[in-house]
Specification:
Blueprint lengths: L1 H6 L1 H19 L71 H15 L1 H5 L19 H4 L10 H4 L2 E3 L4 E3 L1 H11 L11 H13 L26 H11 L1 H4 L6 E2 L6 E3 L17 H11 L13 H12 L33 H6 L3 H10 L5
Antiparallel strand pairs: 1-2, 3-4
């Protein structure tokens, strides 16, 4: 079989190209290519934890809705003009230790991928989150390059964070995600679930030196626009690229027969709250650029920088749960330029801090000696 595939590889590429051209022609009358904006949903392909198991049961498979066409965008080619960084790659499953430690790591991975099944509103273990999964923000169970992965978590924590004004542990960081992105509350620090997620993140950081943040960790920060990000323009991008999966009301789509989303909600009562890191536009725009719509990567982005800023502005302009953040950023001088709630150490409005333009805020911070983030 392997020999046959190699022998006819050129024919397969031609067939694939012709099929994509036919697909584009068919879709042209109804608005062109229907791309999928997918925040780490259960439709992820080739995910490495498909055979992972816990001591209790195997995880749900990450399925793809019937009939979905999963291809790279037509005519998108990687940028070969610049040398590629040496990006982090997750350790192989073969490196998971045997015994109880290995079971703990695998359970942690399952919890990240299928949080709602175990810890959602109808979770089998506890009911402490909103129905989204951790991997809706930390793609491919926290393993995707520039997809908000966990590669640098264990190597950089504990660390001081300006948002809380204190030194935070990995446990505190996970709890924050549950309280903000999952709009709930974190598992008890001594619970099996918390220990499993910590063990999984520690394993993902295998080989990463203490204090180092690997290339490809976190999210890219896009160059600032010379204007404010525009929710109205972003609404058009959303309609063309995103709502076919996430819905015209951002409500998402549930996986039939389960408590999980195939496509997570982007706003509304079951989405992330306004205290989540992704609610900051510089984070969301960079997230979108290298990961959305479905199939996009840092090598083959599908949206321009401006489209990424504008669609992020539209999504984050829509209603969502509110979190009391009155105790965040005790030193207001350290607030990021895109933090959307005052008070500020400058005279710019909340609207400008939320949507930009950001460069005037940066210049004002530099002039007063305030840190720029």
């Amino acid at each position: 079989m392997k020999t046959t595939i190699l022998k006819h590889s050129s024919s397969w590429r031609l067939l694939q190209s012709n099929s994509l051209q036919q697909l584009s022609r068919l879709l042209a009358p109804v608005g062109g290519l229907l791309s999928l904006l997918l925040i780490g949903s259960g439709a992820t392909l080739a995910i490495r934890y498909g055979t992972a198991s816990t001591s209790a049961e195997a995880p749900l498979p990450l399925t793809t809705p019937a009939g979905m066409i999963l291809t790279a965008p037509v005519n998108q080619q990687p940028d070969t003009t610049q040398p590629k960084p040496s990006y982090w790659r997750p350790p192989a499953d073969a490196q998971i230790p045997v015994g109880e430690t290995g079971k703990q790591i695998r359970y942690g991975r399952v919890l990240v991928a299928h949080t709602a099944k175990y810890l959602g509103p109808n979770g089998s273990v506890r009911h402490i989150s909103n129905g989204m999964n951790c991997q809706n923000c930390h793609l491919e169970a926290g393993t995707k390059v520039l997809g908000n992965n966990y590669s640098g978590v264990f190597s950089t924590y504990p660390k001081f964070r300006e948002r809380s004004g204190s030194v935070e542990s990995v446990v505190k960081r996970i709890t924050d995600c549950f309280e903000r992105s999952l709009s709930g509350k974190g598992p008890d620090s001594n619970s099996r679930e918390m220990k499993a997620m910590v063990a999984y993140m520690k394993w993902l950081g295998t080989g990463v030196p203490s204090g180092k943040r690997p290339e490809g960790a976190g999210l890219v920060k896009l160059p600032y626009l010379d204007r404010a990000a525009d929710p109205e323009t972003g609404k058009l991008v959303y309609a063309a690229k995103c709502q076919s999966c996430h819905g015209s009301k951002g409500e998402g789509v549930r996986l039939p027969g389960t408590a999980q989303y195939t496509y997570p909600p982007l706003w509304g009562p079951h989405s992330y709250n306004d205290g989540a890191g992704i609610y900051r536009l510089t984070s969301f725009a960079g997230y979108v650029k290298n990961n959305m719509p479905f199939g996009a990567t840092y090598e083959r982005p599908q949206l321009t920088d401006a489209e990424s800023w504008d669609v992020a502005a539209f999504v984050n302009s829509m209603p969502r749960p509110h979190k009391d953040q009155s105790h965040d950023w005790p030193d207001i001088r350290t607030k990021p330029v895109d933090f959307p709630y005052g008070p500020y150490a400058d005279t710019f409005s909340e609207k400008q801090h939320k949507f930009g333009p950001y460069q005037p805020i940066v210049e004002a911070k530099k002039a007063t000696g305030s840190p720029v983030k």
